[in-house]
Fold this protein.
Amino acid sequence: MPGQTILVVDDEERQREIYRDILQDEGYDTETTASGESALRLLGQKRFDLVLTDLNLTGMTGIELLSGILAADPTVAVVLITGYPSIQSAIEATKKGVYQYLEKPVDRDRLLEVVREVFERLEALKQTIIGDSPATKAMVRMILKVASTAHTVLILGESGTGKELVARGIHSHSPRGDRPFLAVNCAALTETLLESELFGHEKGAFTDAHQQKKGLFERANHSTLFLDEIGDTSLAMQAKILRVLQEREMLRVGGTVPIKVDVRIIAATNKNLEQLLKEGKFREDLYYRLKVIPIVCPPLRERREDVEELALHFVRKAATAAGREVEGITPEALEALRAYSWPGNIRQLEWAMERAVVLGESEWVEPRDLPPEILQPAPAASATQAGTQPNTGHGFGPVVPEGSWEEHEKAKILEALQRSNWNITRAAQLLGMTFRTLQYRLEKFGIKRP
């Protein structure tokens, strides 16, 4: 197992040696230490992929060590071992991001099973969440850690940063992963439609309710429901969602009998919820219910190290779809891609690479194949526009004015509609959107068939 490093922390020498021998026999590069304090010193000197630590250490506790590890390097996976498990310590550790709990005495097979699972899941996520930057590694580790729990997750990030991909990653690596992942874009539906979509309705509940319908909460029982753009919901809808989270039960529209549901909620937003709280547009109780475990999807401008790998991935994907042979991206084009600020984030990069493949005439993506805005130098901007002010509330302000990206997005939607002869279902597939999301975008931009 080359490259997979493990640090074992236990104040009992014999126990340390047992863990070390088991792991080294399986080929893991393993080191040991007796205290949390010495573990942090080692972590400051060498990179470890996984820390296996006793919860009840002499001096610094396992929970305190976990906090220190996450402060120094949140990309390190942590497994806690304890002979005195408690619900409170488990909750505290899980909120901080611990991957797994093991109870003493630790069975050899169980230990190796958990360690293998850590590395297998991490490798699988690397195939889904593309990139090797520190920000991306931290996000992947967090996904791995929260996936095994049933806690509510709130994903924060600008449009186009891959929030739904993160949600799908959490679900697929969770105990609920063998069940369907259900999702809804709360901003794409009217209040009435959203209520019916989430809660379902009884026959005769309203004029067009000709038969009973199960909503997403009911259909996602024992599975995961992703509420995208939760920040766009009304206060009334927020109250109904909160009731499901608190009571674990719901009512269909027009129904009178509560229905018990076991649903893991993952919510996402590109809005500054703390600001919406201050403005009275988002419920405080729902905010704290959702924000049990927050995950921030960093904007592409903060993970420029990933631009090349992402761009090559999208080029290969677009070339396969177009039936073209494309060798790669020229150094000059890569330089332009890295220098651009990407206000539309990963989604904009994907569309740019699709355009380059479709319009390009050589076996390499060249600067002339890129959208004009990428080749133009960014206009001078104030500190606020440039995003140099500290981000105090996940405001997710773009580096360039939002209008620039919206114009680009509108142009891409029109291009897809023309390519599909205004077939909205086909256009949505070309754009990587759901039918309803594209409908929402059409209404937002006022796009109508000529």
